[in-house]
Design a protein that fits this description.
With 312 residues, this protein is mainly alpha-helical. 71% of the residues lie in helices and 5% in strands. The N and C termini lie far apart (54 Å). InterPro entries: 7TM_GPCR_serpentine_rcpt_Srg.
Amino acid sequence: MITTVEIIQISYIIPSYILLFIFAILLTKEILIKKNPTFNNQFYPFLLYKVCTDLVIVASTLFCSRAAKMNLFGSFFQNNNILAYYYYIQVGTCYTILYTISVITSFNRFLAMSYPFLLDYWFSPKKIKIYMIFPFIVGLLFGIITVTMHPFYVYLKPIAGYYIVFKDSRTPYVVLIYTIVYIVPIAITSILMNVVTIYKLTKFLKKNNEKSSQDTQLVIYSVLDFFCFILFLIYNLTRVINFLTAKSDVIEGIAASAINWILDIHTFGLFYAALILSKPLRNLFLHIIYPDRGGSVMVVQPINTHYKSTRI
């Protein structure tokens, strides 16, 4: 059954997804093909990694989860539990990547503000590849473990659609262990680094009588990304704690509805925030509409007390 809320969500998901897909192509071209130093640096490759991950998870969620809940294809999902397996493999992989990117971008801005001389070491091309491969492997392993809990579609009368549940009752404990061992340490680390980064940035701007800089905008983006990550953390903990204690259907229903909004905010909200905050990204995107659009771009560099952002 399709609700009014779901119609609203679909109305912005489809056009936003198309724009995000175009953006991914443009940024891929600048980073991997043109090797444009404005984007092929120590920050934007992670943004591209996030965007590509977002595209996968939004498409999978739209078809394997949201379409099932809306019961768009009748009994199709009930007879194709393989989609539930696929969905949770990519959920485990993609969410782990997104969580890790959040702490990596926080670490990037932390170094840029506090230890700029270490930025080249910790974000060398080799280490950037490691930062991208590691969460993929961890996430894939978690996804494989999750599907051993045997997810399957079940028809729920209250929503008049299909919902994915697990045959194995140990699933919440697996999620809890994953949350405590992997997600919580990331959250704590991100909190500490973001606090220090914001303090250092504020101090730098006051000392140099500046109101803003490109580095400020990147810090704002990484902080927004972190807050979205915290929403995911709250969602995971709420579901696990609810299962272990109250087992409330109301709480489970609220969490199931909230995750769609959280995913949309994390995907499309951060996408539009990146365009608003970053002039190079904005110009890159607007170049499609205005091919002859001129304007300067900002070169992303670390901040220290002897340096100011350079405009070309």
